[in-house]
DNA sequence: GGCATCCTCTGACTAGAGTCAGAGGATGGA
DNA sequence: TCCATCCTCTGACTCTAGTCAGAGGATGCC
């Protein structure tokens, strides 16, 4: 790896942990230990199950329990068994808790403001733009791809979002019933597979692969959430699916697409796909692509 | 302040404290408490006086003493009275200490690498560029201006750097003896003043103001360290000097400059200075500028 | 030489942030 | 109905990271 890049990253780390890290603790932990503050924050407006809190924050169950006891005795939260499964307990903010959370929120704003405050307008705009870029790319680096069942809730969420988007973007809308969509079975081993991309456990994209016997592999239902675009995720899906198709002995990868999806078409070209004649009669397709793989 | 900017800064803070902050502690504190690691780092190759360490890290004397005891008993440092003043004690790394410090250094590299590692070449370049920008601007926000005596070591450092730079940049070099440089007395109250810009206590620029009786105020010896350029520091100096000249009842601010200093000339124009006829016979000057102030 | 001041160290604390090993109630399946 | 499993809680610890109040040697100045 390029040493001058490493160097710049180290300088960044240093500056940022000093300016942001130190201030962060000072602002947020002003009159409450940061453990409690983080918990209060993570409970959110609607409440949370204790086990989920523990998962999200990666904390020991005993520790969380103790923190909850502290918040409870300060009158900030109530903890009650969940009606469905009385082993699980649900935490909810009281009005006082909500108020406390709002002050934490205000302090986060103060902290952010204190970083911008000494700068002039131009500098602020530049800083914010650069922060957005760092944010996006660091987030991109945490994206993980998993194979899941197409019926998994996260998969379903992505597919719903995908259909909704097609409905808006296609000239004549989109009706799943009219399309040659594969059944869930076709995207489930051994007939295929379904990939999900996640950051911090949240689904942000999906892509399916059909592996029909003695025929080219076919990419289906590739979608990236709007807020996750520009992170190279489409490319990553393609590379991953290509590798998996090759593992399954296929030497051709293909897909069909609609003319409304300009960015995707550009991606296919730049990833080495060639336009070919229609290989199916998908009514929503305008272009068919193919790539030889090894 | 713009709420969408605040929002972006908050998103940035969150991402960064997660990705960088958490990893930071995990990498660096792998087998040594971060307090000790920080201290080990700050001692440096050449050793340090205990009091200076305390100052730099902002820690309690008892605490530092205890940390040093721990490092000493691990054979990483030696602590000895300073020969000149035996109340002060000097810490030096042993060979083992140097080795330990080198592994910490390696881990910082690893951490930086782990941020870049999941990204492709383009993304890496973009991330590094954005980090550099964030770094510069956050640093810019910590710059403080102080009035110091022109004989102060930091002032002397800036002036030496300034002369050295002029020597390189002027077509015919620069010889202080030939120039109309003000004596230190002219930049010292009540005849004038001398400003120093610092980040983290390190001097990164200077600017002097002459306040001759019943005459326009005059800017002298304005210099910004090469690594601190592009932070708007020149503008900040001008604004500060203008305000101080006005406080002292002057309504005209002027300066002379050399044609080799293109960026500075641009700055003077954009800050509202107008070119005027020569008001002195400085041999190194090609342009003379003036601005009416209130 | 005497005394205030400086610098470092030690002892005695505190608070936060966790970890670990059960206890004990709730649930689900045989 | 019984038993394994799940979820949460409690008690008993540990480690960091600090703070505070002096003790005691070294120095500088009168």
From TrEMBL, chains A, B:
Recorded superkingdom: Bacteria
InterPro entries: Acyl_CoA_acyltransferase, ArsR-like_HTH, Bact_Acetyltransf, GNAT_dom, HTH_MarR-typ, WH-like_DNA-bd_sf, WH_DNA-bd_sf
PROSITE patterns: GNAT, HTH_MARR_2
PANTHER family: AMINOALKYLPHOSPHONATE N-ACETYLTRANSFERASE-RELATED, AMINOALKYLPHOSPHONATE N-ACETYLTRANSFERASE-RELATED-RELATED
Coiled-coil ranges from the UniProt annotation: none
N-acetyltransferase domain location: 142-294
Pfam families found in the cross-reference section: Acetyltransf_1, MarR_2
Record keywords: Acyltransferase, Transferase
HTH marR-type domain boundaries: 1-136
Protein name, UniProt field: MarR family transcriptional regulator
